[in-house]
Amino acid sequence: WPFFVRCWQSILNRSPNMWTLIGIGTGAAFIYSLVGTLAPQVFPDSFISMGRVAVYFEATDAIISLTLLGQVLELKARSQTSAAIKSLLGLAPKTARKVNDDGREEDIPLSHVHVGDLLRVRPGEKVPVDGIVTEGSSSIDESMLTGEPVPVTKRVGDQVIGATMNMNGSLVMRSEKVGSSTVLSQIVQMVSQAQRSKAPMQRMADQVAGWFVMVVIGISILTFLGWGIFGPEPSWVYGLINAVAVLIIACPCALGLATPMSIMVATGRGASNGVLFRDAAAIENLRKIDTLIIDKTGTLTEGQPTFDKIIPLSGYEDNEILRLAASLDQGSEHPLADAIVRAARERDLALSKPTSFESGSGIGVKGELNGHQLSLGNTALMEQLGISVDAFINDAEKLRAEGASVMHLAVDGKLIGLIAVSDPIKASTPEALHSLKNSGLRIVMATGDGLTTAKSVGSRLGIDEVYGEVKPADKLELVKKLQKEGRIVAMAGDGINDAPALAQADIGIAMGTGTDVAMNSAQVTLVKGDLRGIEIARTLSEATIKNMKQNLMFAFLYNALGIPLAAGILYPFTGWLLSPMIAALAMSLSSASVIGNALRLRK
After folding, report:
1. Which helix or strand (DSSP H or E) is residue 493 part of?
2. Of 24, 101, 185, 393, whose CB is crowded by the most CB atoms within 10 A?
3. Cα(118)–Cα(98) distance, integer angstroms
4. Which one, of 290, 295, 292, lies nearest residue 470 by Cα?
5. Among the options 295, 308, 494, 498, which is catalytic?
6. 78-82, 177-181, 596-600 — which is least confidently predicted?
């Protein structure tokens, strides 16, 4: 019944597909057999063989059964490709241990955890949700989500990810993201969305399949008439059998499976390697990129900068400058700001809360503190505010040449000091860039840091094309400029200031260690924040497209050979005819060959 429902829907919607052919073919054979059984007298003598009208109930049953077998094989293969999602879903614990206001602890279902709850995570237990450590320290195994084999030490103030394993210490954490907001849930959602999406190549295949079905129906009608008029007796019986065989063997189910199966396997394979594709188009287009723009902080570097030093203007103390800067930076999401706040707390400085705060993403922050206007940022921000930085120009250049990020602090429009923060380069970055350059990519670095700092990092990494003190709008314009030159551009970044460029780029690549805004703006997310994932993703993209093309070739080649055979073209020379049952078996085998080829991507 579902076969005929789908067939009828395809006719009503004018979207011919495999169900159209199966429904028409088996329906014609069944109705013919039914009339031949109940009212054989309506048929002319040419339809009678061995004293009766030949019927094909068993052939129709066999065709339906074999097609259902093909569907079962397809569902089984799809369940295998969804193994990545199932394994991810299985990572989440079922319960959490809540610490109540009176100090009592109780186990509650994970669904009952709310933002702000205090949760105890004992040794050997999984972290229930995303949050921040408020008490204790321990090593957390994050390999299930990030692929990083070495456990990460977590202390008070550090972020923890739900579903990761607490190894040896007891922690108390405050939940910050629950339910669908957790990193794990977002990963599952992205993998599912990518598996459901259609690649541009699949949309083309769907259009071809629609026209193909109409052509097949035409060939089937011609086969029926040709055999009926010119074939041997019982000619019309031969005509019906061969017409049904043409409809069945030409069923484009292999064509319909050709690209979705490859996409499903590829997204699962990518997820297990820490690479999340938002949709099928991202997989198909990633292999085409020829230019990669990379942000510095958090992308090339660890994104966990450490406070370096303060150079104060005469009459100001180091601690006072650090206190003012940290008080203002409490409202910023930038890793450099986090380093300054952390350094102030380590010195037990009393921080004040700013009464107003404004982030000029990528160039610095401004705000009001105890009635004074504070500005903290790079040279671009100071120039924007008309504040001279000449007093620190030599010191700043020296620090930048050493790879440090330099920020100027001004109070009420007057410069009072300079703060230097260092951000070490990720250990995996040199290897990743070497691999990407060898694959023919043009590498460009664009950062909000000073040009000297940017060039210092660029020279250490072998990046010749470097842009410094770049605002979010400038990154966006850089992407557009390269696109106008005919380049196919990928942008890799992790911050809010990268979001516009990530959205504009042909392929946006976000670091999983960065902000949600960046990940929502990108087509690809590297869970580990490791640039080596780009080469993995490109390799997977190329293998997937190659696999799709193989599948489409199998599907078209199979039909090119099968249709003439089913129409009886060899009969005059060999006496061979292809029964509808054999055609149905061949159709299922063609689907199995496409599924089997797609599953090779798992290796």
Report:
1. strand 489-493
2. 24
3. 6
4. 295
5. 295
6. 78-82
